[in-house]
Amino acid sequence: MSNLLDLLIAGLATGAIYAIVAVGFTLLWQTSQTINFAQGEFVMLPAFLMLGVLHVGAPFWVAILVGIALSMLLLGLGFKLLLVDPMLRHGVLPLAIATMALAIGIKESAKQFWSAEASPFPSIVPAGDVFILGRAVALQSLGVLAVAVIAVTLLTLLLNRTSIGHQMQAAAQNPTVARIIGVPVERMILLTFLINAFLVALASLLITPIYLAKFSNGEVLGQAAFIAAIVGGFNQIRGAIAGGLLIGVVDNLAAAYVSTQYRAAVPLVLLIAIILFRPQGLLGRPEERTV
Amino acid sequence: MNAKYLKLGFGVVVIAALIIVPMNFNRYGLFILSQWAVMTIAAMGLNLTLGYAGQVSLAQGAFVGIGAYTAAIMTSSGFPLIAALAVAIVLCFAIGWILGYPALRVQHHYLAFVTLAFSTLAFLVFRNEEWLTKGIYGISNIPRPEIFGYPTRRPLPFYYFCLGSLSLVSLAVWWLIRSPWGRAFVALRENPVRALSLGIDTRHYTLMAFAIGSALGGVAGVLYAPLTQYVDPVPFHLSLSLDLLMMVIVGGSGFFFGPFLGAMIAVLLPEWLRFTQGYYLMLYAVAVIGLLIYSPSGILGILDRFIAERRTKAASAKRATATAKLEVTP
Q: What span, in angstroms and rounded, lies between the C-alpha atoms of A46 and A51?
């Protein structure tokens, strides 16, 4: 029983990271019909950018800020201007395939310019345990959870309580009408790309101390984020959050109770079941645009 | 008429070159060319599913794996390769058919994710079911077949065997896409609702598109096993499915010769670009993105557009002279 609790906490911590990545993924889909197959690589890359800055001798907090800024520039602005904008007129599928090519490109660049070996990455949360109700809980898990909860809460507040958030939602739901009532749709779309870039940089910062910085990290992370987004609901932020947490927990429980060899299979089976029986996701609403 | 002979002549030259030129290639060159033939078969299968029927699949690599393991397991225990081929085709056809069912319910990216999940599951089975696949150690010493009594143990005969298989598959696919079936596939891609209202059983054809495409993946796998003579899970990772998808897209999806060109670029180009060392895949990725931005229908799409433009120009020039004449005569 105590073991189960540990697994749940660890699962929620990784799940919270998946949730952040999945939220970015669904944001891109909602505002610009971009299915970003490179999302996992987007999470892998900022850690290397930060490592690069650390390598020059900068302190960790500078590296974090520069890493986030660079990733917003490259993975937000650059991604939108150089890949999504010219590809969007060709349709959803060619754009998705282009992002697959981008994933290969980013992965190979990290391998080529940094290293094929895994590099250690400093954690923003100190190592060690805290005692809650007489039980040892890893500080890292709690720290990750706390940062993820704050990030998601802030994002939800931004989307639901501010004028900019409302404009973004309008731009996503009906660009034509949004334009008529004076919403700068283009700027709002760009803003979602920047938010996505910020979220992946944050996720990178949180998960890399656990997984180490490795060029192939993106494969696992990307798949987890896709599954989270689909299981939760492609068109709902809260769906992506629930999906992320669920996948994190299921993944950890499967490793303990099913088999370590087939732990990766359990979320996939869940994914197939959801797509077959409830394609809109657990919390999503049926989509009119596609499917 | 002239253009037709030109095409025919070009085809004959290419086939003759594929037969004659490799005769004095070394072992490695022949291996690469054989690999090209095998990957072309797999990409042709995917081209049927994706290019003609318009169903996205990220599972073609898994079917190559299923075919390869079928061949490896069966020929190692003494069955002839032809028996393995039959089993692999039936197996991949059946699994492909089942995998097609989600395509009846969902489209596009959802389908991509279902097939992606299948691909990863297949990889896990290859790696973990050691009693069957020997897990990460792989199956080695896979024998090469005898064709009509000729052994193909040496690289050159085996290359001819691959080339021969490729020709047979090409003929079959050529016939298929010109048959009512192929037309039905295209109708399915262009407008499923209209296809349905024209009396095409879209359900049946969607499943068929998956099943036939997957079966061709299996055929490629059956050739892959004796080619490398060693089968382990690593080559059948999800990245093979992505590579095959890129081959189809780069060559030109929905064009008969697309997979030939795409597989050539994906298999041969790394060898020619050796001097770029590790930068090759980065260059490839950038080139693919650039190509997709310029022409989402691949290299043959550019060619097609070019020819179509020239034809319209020629036609409008003719029309101009014709109208000019008409205006003069009365």
A: 8
